[in-house]
Automatic annotation (TrEMBL):
SUPFAM superfamilies, A to Z: Flavoproteins (SSF52218)
Gene3D superfamilies, per the entry: 3.40.50.360
Stored InterPro entries: Flavoprotein-like_sf (IPR029039)
Domain of life: Bacteria
Organism of this sequence: Pseudolysobacter antarcticus
Lineage, opening ranks: Bacteria, Pseudomonadati, Pseudomonadota, Gammaproteobacteria, Lysobacterales
Name assigned to this protein: Uncharacterized protein
Length: 81
């Protein structure tokens, strides 16, 4: 279903750029204590380790902020007994 919605959006928006994040193929690690510490540390107190811990999160946040449309899909499974 997500692919169909994506096609419809692209068909109706010439020049649209699609950015995909497939978490099944390229999982994002779980948030760590050091990442949270980095969120609350002023720029002057950031160490290289804290910058590294927040780098991926900051990149994803920046990616989402600039988008006009955000389509989030998830697989659905039907379990039959």
């Amino acid at each position: 279903m997500g692919d169909a919605i994506e096609r419809a959006l692209v068909d109706n928006s010439p020049g649209a750029i699609v950015v995909r994040r497939d978490l099944g193929r390229a999982p994002i690690e779980h948030i760590r204590d050091q990442t949270i510490t980095g969120y609350y540390t002023p720029d002057g107190g950031m160490t290289d380790a804290l910058r590294d811990a927040t780098k991926l999160s900051n990149a994803i946040i920046d990616e989402v902020r600039v988008e006009d449309v955000l389509l989030i899909t998830t697989p659905m499974s039907i379990l039959l007994a």
